[in-house]
């Protein structure tokens, strides 16, 4: 019987969640820094500077979460980047929809729009982004029998020569 990897402690899970928060804060600083440089330094119109700043922040978020929060060392970098992008595009849509829904449902919250933004974006982060990131960055050997986002797990098949081979 093979050995099983011990389950991660609650403290370990909370520390990883905290590291994801730190990575997110760093990505936000990159986003705002690029935005500031492009608007103040290069005199771009803020809407024109927004997309490159968001992309820079998104790259910083991916790198920070992959290496710092989830400590991913293996798996296809291209596959992880593509899946991370899909998760984040969906999160963007969810953030917009949830924020709009809350603001329409409770118009009296208009004065606290920033608090609504923080609350709704954190809800999407906790219920959507973070759980899926943990699958995006999970090593392939940890997903056997589960949804494998790192690619197929090799399955032994009989070898006509009498041994076995993995496909």
Describe this protein with a few key phrases.
167 residues; mainly alpha; 2 domains; two-stranded antiparallel ribbon; 65% helix
What can you tell me about this protein's structure?
- This protein has 167 residues and is mostly helical.
- The chain has 2 domains: 10-71; 75-146.
- Helix content is 65%, strand content 4%.
- It has 4 helices and 2 strands.
- A two-stranded antiparallel ribbon has the order 1-2.
- Strand 1 and strand 2 (164-166) form a beta hairpin.
- Helix 3 (77-105) runs antiparallel to helix 4.
- The protein is globular, with a radius of gyration of 20 Å.
- The two termini are 22 Å apart.
From the N-terminal CA to the C-terminal CA, the straight-line distance is 22 Å
Helix count equals 4
Low-confidence stretches: 1-5, 143-156
The SS-based structural class is: mainly alpha
**Count of the separate structural domains:** 2
Q: Percent of residues in beta strands?
A: under 5%
Spatial strand order of the main sheet: 1-2
The SSE string, one letter per element, is HHHHEE
**Overall body shape:** globular
Number of DSSP strands? 2
Please render the helix and strand layout as text:
Elements: H1 10-41, H2 46-69, H3 77-105, H4 113-136, E1 156-158, E2 164-166
Antiparallel strand pairs: 1-2
């Amino acid at each position: 019987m093979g050995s099983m990897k011990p389950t991660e402690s609650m403290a370990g899970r909370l520390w990883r969640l905290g590291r994801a928060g730190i990575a997110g804060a760093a990505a936000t600083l990159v986003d705002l820094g690029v935005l500031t440089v492009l608007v103040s330094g290069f005199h771009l119109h803020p809407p024109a500077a927004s997309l490159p700043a968001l992309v820079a922040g998104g790259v910083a978020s991916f790198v920070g979460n992959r290496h710092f929060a989830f400590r991913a060392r293996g798996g296809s970098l291209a596959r992880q980047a593509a899946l991370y992008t899909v998760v984040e595009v969906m999160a963007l849509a969810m953030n917009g929809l949830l924020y709009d829904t809350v603001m329409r449902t409770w118009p009296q919250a208009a004065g606290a729009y920033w608090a609504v933004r923080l609350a709704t974006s954190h809800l999407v982060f906790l219920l959507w982004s973070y759980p899926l990131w943990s699958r995006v960055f999970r090593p392939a050997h940890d997903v056997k029998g589960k949804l494998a986002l790192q690619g197929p797990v090799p399955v032994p098949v009989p070898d006509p020569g009498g041994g076995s081979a993995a496909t």
